[in-house]
Design brief:
This protein has 286 residues and is α/β, with parallel strands linked by helices. The chain has helices spanning 15-28, 43-48, 57-61, 88-91, 100-105, 124-132, 144-148, 150-163, 183-199, 212-219, 224-227, 232-247, and strands at 2-7, 33-38, 71-72, 77-79, 113-118, 135-141, 169-178, 203-209. It has one domain: P-loop containing nucleotide triphosphate hydrolases (Rossmann fold). An 8-stranded mixed beta sheet has the order 3-4-2-5-1-6-7-8, with helices on both faces. Mean pLDDT is 87; it is low at 258-283.
Length: 286
């Protein structure tokens, strides 16, 4: 099971779109995928058409049984976000709370990939994602603001690796909202490659071109492949998923070509309305 965190401290750079598109493409390629929405805004869950008022990420982190928290979507299973995640820093402030996700995921079996959509902040939820992940994908829009914030983000990743997860790696930097018609996109892409080399990582060969189909698909609560499989975004995210598969050690010859794998009708993974839970006393950090 490969656990991948899509990350950046800056909003609007394509983290959620990348997480959603990667989960969808891996799922429709025959892999078993669990997506986890770890952003209180819940954009991933909304774009997936997830049910509201169901148990989800918050309940999973506090120890509820996985089968009570996971919703089954067409191409992947989903731990959905809700507004309760906005109080995660206060709710999960006990010693060792950075490892709640890591421990919870050990209860799961049968997934090839776990895709984490993180929030644009270095909070307890993002630290949980870093503590649990095998690799992080840094999503960056091709502009100067994303480039200037790259060093700070990489420092945070290094600190997470030092204190929480020595095995965490950066799979690479994914450039999004790329416009080949503009000189600024081309020049910024070259600057990212130069900076990535200095930071000891890579920029993915695949770039995600600007496409209105992404926003349109999100409004219709479907992935870009179902919305328009021939659009630029669908082509780019398909190429990225395959490139990521190779970067993470996958065998190109074994890339699955099957149709979307439906959840088995007898699967124990079901969703139920979340239940109230009594607060327990825990040892808290000072």
């Amino acid at each position: 099971m490969k656990i991948i965190a899509m990350t950046n401290k800056k909003g609007g750079v394509g983290k959620t779109t990348t997480a959603l598109s990667t989960a969808a493409y891996l799922g429709q390629s025959g892999f078993s995928v669990l997506a986890i929405d770890m952003d209180a805004q819940g954009n991933f869950s909304q774009a997936s058409g997830a049910k509201r008022d169901e148990a989800g990420t918050f309940d999973f982190l506090r120890g509820d049984p996985p089968e009570n928290c996971i919703q089954k979507m067409a191409k992947y299973d989903l731990l959905a976000a809700d507004a309760r995640l906005s109080r995660a820093d206060k709710e999960f402030d006990q010693i060792g709370s950075e490892h709640l996700l890591e421990k919870a995921l050990k209860r799961l079996k049968g997934y090839d990939y776990v895709i984490l959509d993180t929030s644009p902040a270095m909070n307890v939820l993002t630290l949980n994602a870093f503590a649990a992940a095998d690799a992080a994908v840094v999503c960056c829009q091709t502009d100067s603001f994303s480039l200037s914030g790259l060093d700070d983000l990489m420092k945070n990743v290094d600190l997470a690796k030092e204190y929480y997860n020595k095995d965490l790696t950066v799979a690479g930097i994914l450039l999004t909202r790329y416009d080949s018609r503009t000189s600024i996109s081309k020049r910024t892409a070259e600057m990212f490659k130069e900076r990535a080399k200095e930071l000891g990582t890579r920029v993915f060969e695949t770039v995600i071109r600007e496409s209105v189909a992404i926003k349109e698909s999100q409004m219709r609560q479907c992935d870009v492949f179902d919305y328009s499989a021939s659009c630029h975004a669908a082509e780019d995210y398909a190429a990225f998923a395959k490139e990521l598969y190779i970067v993470l050690g996958g065998d190109k010859k074994k890339w699955q070509k099957s149709s979307p794998k439906p959840n088995a009708s007898d699967s124990p993974r079901i969703s139920i309305p979340r239940q109230p839970r009594k607060r327990t006393t825990t040892l808290r950090r000072r």
